[in-house]
Design a protein that fits this description.
- The complex is a heterodimer of chains A (261) and B (418).
- Chain A is an alpha/beta fold and 261 residues long.
- Chain A has 11 helices and 10 strands.
- In chain A, α5 crosses α6.
- Chain B is an all-alpha fold.
- Chain B has a domain of 239 residues.
- Helices cover 68% and strands 3% of the residues of chain B.
- Chain B has a two-stranded antiparallel ribbon with strand order 1-2.
- In chain B, β1 and β2 form a beta hairpin.
- In chain B, α4 runs parallel beside α6 and α5 runs antiparallel to α11.
- Chain B is globular and about 85 Å long.
- The chains are: A alpha/beta (261), B mainly alpha (418).
């Protein structure tokens, strides 16, 4: 399998804090990979480095063979990495449709003077974009809420809208930061199935941060565990679950002793 | 049912039977006729009194252009600009410098009016670039300073000494006296039709000529604004306003997007400044004080930020309130009222002195009672309306476990945790 994302010895220091500490990390094409770890392990910081919000203190990140470390978020998005946020960050006072259309920004070419002149090219492009955005809203189950303000959507639908907006950037790699946070078991199950569908139907590679172990174990082929910024384990879900260091990180040394006795 | 309402009913039904396209054409023609007839009607009213209604209307339309420009910066892109009058000044002075006879340039109004847009846009970029990393209050402070610097700099540019440029006591802006006279928009129809009687449009102080010029510019700016609003760039502006980081992650280049807001907003203002200069035939620093920036900002906020039609209506109402009601209608009314009540207080009351008190109070009242502005956009109104209906499936709302309602979730998760 070919690697679509590769981090080499990546570190991120905030002053004295090593949020991410020399992490090597590979995501293979068409995989669903998970990044797990206790609170403060550096998972979101890692996402932020991949998407360009942080420039790594050391190390390099490659996407599709291209060095993307330190690139601006919008250029990273244009290259084909889409993301959602741990705390929903929709454009609240814009409709669902507009939210998705903003996601298409890097795929559209219309300029300000074309917009003012309403050239045929830009009119055509806008019509296509609106149709594409409608199709995406339908795909995530928001067809009935097209003109609803994002802030007025119920929580579960906001999560879905964030995914639709990320899909609108036409990513090859989709980063999902805790997509099931705050969901009940039923919604979590739906979301898990949906993530699998995304990969199977749209040919996406997916990397997710997740706390819910059932989600992680259910869908990811490969799990990487971070603790205090360091990678402490990697492997299939089953392998990682048995790893002593992982149990220790999550439950403490006493728990490990209890298990091994 | 009375006869009148029956007639009204029948007429409505008849009207609705007309195909929609034709209805639009008829309505459009009515609007155009009204707009063309308006100045002559206003002048008829003016004739009997010592009022300058049409001039006030023209100024009001220019303020609408200014407010539409500021609406791009503040309403669409969410960048609080407190020094917007600086671009108004730069437009007016660019026009003045290029057409002031003393400089000997005396370029044609029609050429200069095409140039001031780009010139002001350039200055928009100059002020925009260093402020790109600033948000909210800090941006407001810097733009406020810029708004103070520009008129002061222009005032002091009457004695420029730069030896290596060959400038020795060069008088660019004529200091506090300003530039006077400046160019006028002249269309000499005799040049095109030699057999015609000499007829020169825009030469005199005939305000109806100005009205048509300002109307055309206003309509161009209005429709330009509308189209920008519903474009890729308009959506990018609003996304930046809502959440700059998220917008950046969705492929919006914040630097480009913000600079375009500054540049386009400034160019609207520059054009308005040039026309204002030509209309009043004088440009001097006092015209562009801080309160001009604030007045334009008040128009945008009271009208409903981001809504183009709201800004149009709000701009007209506020400017006419200030220029006609307070300045022209109130004094004689108060005077005669004072005579009748024998009150020296009323006779001497000049409401114009209290205009800022009124605007400030109005702003406060709007903020308290109707924070979305007087004329919020139709989309927003529709949204408020839809909220009344049970759009959320009750099941979704109930299935959610306690403590994870959207509102609570939002407040629980302030930022990135790892």
């Amino acid at each position: 399998m070919e690697a679509i994302l590769e981090a080499r010895n990546v570190s991120m220091h905030f002053g004295g804090l090593r949020a991410v500490d020399t992490v090597d990390f590979v995501v293979e094409q068409d995989a669903i990979a998970s990044l797990i770890g206790p609170n403060g392990a550096g998972k979101t910081t890692f996402f932020n480095m991949v998407t360009g919000l942080h420039k790594p203190t050391a190390g390099k990140i490659f996407f599709d063979g291209q060095d993307i470390s330190g690139k601006q978020p919008n250029s990273v998005t244009a290259l084909g990495i889409g993301r959602t946020f741990q705390t929903i960050r929709l454009f609240n006072n814009m409709s669902s449709l507009e939210n998705v259309l903003v996601g298409m920004n890097s795929r559209l070419r219309g300029t300000w003077y074309e917009a003012i002149l309403h050239t045929p090219r830009v009119t055509h492009e806008e019509r296509e974009a609106a149709a594409g955005a409608m199709a995406l809203l339908e795909y995530v189950g928001l067809a009935e809420h097209t003109h609803e303000f994002a802030k007025n959507l119920p929580y579960g639908l906001q999560r879905r809208l964030e995914i639709a907006r990320a899909l609108a950037t036409q990513p090859k790699l989709l980063l999902l930061d805790e997509p099931t946070a705050g969901m009940n078991p039923h919604e979590t199950h739906d979301m898990t199935m949906f993530i699998r569908r995304l990969r199977d139907e749209r040919g996406l590679t997916i990397l997710l941060i997740e706390h819910d172990m059932r989600v992680v174990m259910g869908i990811s082929e490969r799990v990487t565990v971070l603790d205090y910024g360091r990678k402490i384990a990697e492997g299939t879900a089953a392998e990682v679950q048995k790893d002593v260091r992982v149990i220790e990180a999550y439950l403490g040394r006493r728990a490990v002793e209890a298990f091994t006795q | 049912m009375t006869k009148v309402s029956a007639l009204q009913d029948n007429l409505t039904r008849l009207w609705l039977r007309v195909p929609e396209g034709a209805r639009k054409v008829v309505l459009g023609m009515l609007v155009v006729t009204a707009l063309i007839a308006l100045p002559f009607g206003v002048q008829l009213v003016e004739r009997g009194y010592t009022l300058s209604l049409l001039f006030s209307l023209n100024v009001a339309l220019l303020y609408v252009v200014l407010a539409l420009g500021l609406n791009i910066v503040v309403g669409f892109a969410g960048l609080l600009d407190l020094g917007y009058a600086a671009f108004f000044a730069l437009g007016a002075y660019s026009f003045g410098i290029l057409t002031w006879p003393t400089h000997g340039l005396e370029w044609s109004f029609w050429i200069v009016i095409l140039l001031v847009g780009p010139i002001a846009a350039f200055f928009g970029l100059v002020i925009g670039t260093p402020t790109l990393r600033l948000r909210g209050d800090y941006l407001a402070i810097v733009t406020l300073a810029f708004g103070e610097i520009v008129p002061n700099a222009l005032r002091n540019m009457s004695d420029i000494n730069i030896p290596w440029l060959g400038l020795d006591h060069f008088n660019l802006t004529n200091g506090t006296q300003g530039l006077n006279p400046v160019g006028k928009p002249v269309i000499n129809l005799q040049a095109i039709f030699p057999n015609m009687e000499p007829f020169v449009v825009g030469q005199g102080a005939n305000q109806s000529h100005w009205y048509f010029l300002v109307l055309v510019v206003g309509l161009l700016v209005l429709f330009g604004s509308r189209r920008l609003d519903n474009s890729r760039l308009g959506r990018a502006w609003k996304a930046i306003r809502e959440d700059e980081t998220a917008a950046n992650c969705m492929g919006v280049n914040p630097v480009r997007t913000k600079l375009l807001a500054f540049a386009l907003g400034a160019s609207f203002s520059g054009v308005a400044g040039a026309i204002f200069a030509s209309m009043s035939q004088a440009v001097f620093p006092e015209l562009f004080r801080f309160n001009v920036s604030i007045f334009i900002l008040i128009i945008v906020i009271i009208s409903g930020m981001g809504n183009v039609w709201g800004v149009l209506v709000g701009g007209l109402i506020l400017t006419l309130f200030d220029r006609v009601l307070l300045a022209q209608l109130a004094p004689p009314l108060l005077h005669s009222l004072g005579d009748q009540l024998n009150s020296d207080f009323l006779r001497g009351l000049d409401l114009q002195l209290y205009r800022w008190v009124m605007f400030g109070t109005g702003l406060l009242i709007i903020m308290l009672l109707r924070p979305e502005g007087l004329f919020p956009s139709r989309v927003r109104k529709a949204e408020f309306h839809e909220l009344d209906e049970p759009i959320l499936e009750a099941s979704t709302a109930n299935r959610r476990p306690a403590g994870t309602t959207p509102a609570e979730h939002d407040s629980m998760s302030g930022g990135d945790d790892s």
